[in-house]
Amino acid sequence: MHTIRIIRITLVLLILLLLLWPRTARAQSGEMMGWYFPVNLGATWFYADPANPTDTFVESVFEEVVYQGQPAYRRGQNLEDHAIVQRSFGVVRVFAIVEEGIFYDLDPDVVLGEMVDGAPFAVCFDSPCDTSLIRFWQNLDPALRSIYQMDPSYTDMIVLASYDPGYPPNLHNVVMESNLPEGVEPPAGAVTGLDFYQRGVGLVSLRDIEAATGGMVENYTLTGYSPVEDPLPRVGIHLAPGVPNPFNPSTTISFTLDRNAAVSLRIFDGAGRLVKDLLVEELRTAGRHRVVWDGTDRRGRALPSGVYVSRLESAGQVRQGRHTLLR
Predict the structure, then answer these.
(1) Do 61 and 73 form a contact (C-beta atoms < 8 A)?
(2) pLDDT tens sequence across 137-177
(3) I need a surface site. Which of 31, 103, 121, 297 has the fewest CB within 10 A?
């Protein structure tokens, strides 16, 4: 596969919404993008060109790593072409990519969070910058199924259309814009790629399109995949650093849940003694939460300066943070 294809697959597969967490009715429904872009160790996908079945390639999540202190995976074809990624709470973070053996650190990290119908975002890798559009269909439009010959077994899909602003619209623009939500303006330029994703499976069809003519340059479809089910993500809760830290008189402790769950949040002193219960088996919904600790103990007495440990527990998982109180 040529360089452009590799770059696009790597980025499009796990790529980004630079505008994180848009709050709309659809986003709040729990449709997290991580479920469409599985990142589970050992999962493997097999692709072939329908017109030339011997033209194949394989992608997998092939190694668990630690990248800049964060747990992550290598996901892609091999050590020459892959991405270093992490998924938690349905959000995928891309730390870096390796393309034809060349390492690119993504700074800031590319983050794929909640997205909703018509949410535009930019995919920039070197130059030029192609503008892209993500679209949801709970059940893919029958007309699109017919035009693009999609497998009828796929029913919970999203489509990613890549655009090149350097060319006028081609025939695929008309198709992609036919069902846009009311009031949503499509990106400028010609459609240069279409990628179809099935929830829980991943990428099932990818097409490179010549901008000027709309003709297919590359066309691959999923021919098989290994189990990718992940009923309980390995990273299901996240505890953020306290803000401010050091603090006086109070600090805000934030945490995120990937599902509704009972949560306990407690404060311990440097000797490991429990000094404060902030939450005790309290039911919280999926998403981000904040709790303020005012530097007092269970009786409301001001604690002395020192280092304290917050301990978050939920669904059998534990996260800890350190907080410095300065009086």
Answers:
(1) yes
(2) 555 567 677 778 888 777 777 777 788 888 999 988 888 77
(3) 103
Cα–Cα distance, 19 to 122 (Å, whole number)? 10
Separation between Cα atoms, residue 275 and residue 258, nearest integer Å: 28
Query: Can you list the pairs that 168-172 forms with residues at least 24 positions away whose Cβ atoms lie under 8 Å?
Result: 170/209, 170/211, 170/212, 170/213, 170/214, 171/214, 172/209, 172/214
pLDDT in tens, 13-67: 333 222 222 222 222 223 445 667 778 888 899 999 999 989 999 999 988 888 8
The Cα 164–Cα 129 span in angstroms is 8
Taken in order 291, 294, 299, 305, the sign of the CA dihedral is positive
Does 118 have pLDDT greater than 90? no
User: What helix, strand, coil percent values describe the chain, rounded to 5?
Assistant: 10, 50, 40
Closest CA to 224 of 10, 63, 57, 15: 57
85 and 112 in contact (C-beta within 8 Å)?
no
Strand, coil or helix: 151:
coil
CA 291 – CA 236 distance, rounded (Å): 19
d(CA 14, CA 100) in angstroms, rounded, equals 18
Do 291 and 279 contact (CB within 8 A), yes or no?
yes
Contacts of 80 (CB under 8 A, 6+ apart): 98, 100, 101
